[in-house]
Amino acid sequence: MKMRRKSDLPVKTCPICNRPFTWRKKWERDWDNVIYCSDSCRAAGKEQKLPYR
To answer: Which InterPro entries does this UniProt record tie to the protein (predicted)?
Structure first.
């Protein structure tokens, strides 16, 4: 596999913090399902969706 520059990697925007985040090797198999940039944003996203809070 050829080396890629960081600027060539796919980018998404986190819906919680509105910051861009780039593809990571860790997310290679699941990139289409990655929504949040971090665990803390994921927790905040789940917290917002709870109707009884």
So the answer is: UCP037205
> How many angstroms separate the Cα of 52 from the Cα of each of 16, 19, 47, 48?
20, 28, 10, 10
Q: Give CA–CA dist 41/48, Å, rounded.
A: 11
Q: What is the pLDDT of residues 20-34, one digit of tens each?
A: 999 999 999 999 999
In sign, the C-alpha dihedral spanning 18, 20, 23, 24 is negative
Sign of the dihedral defined by the CA atoms of residues 13, 15, 18, 21, in that order: negative
- The rounded Cα 32 to chain-centroid distance in angstroms is 10
The DSSP output letter for 46 is H
Phi/psi of residue 26, nearest 5 degrees: -60, -30
State mean pLDDT over 32-44. 94
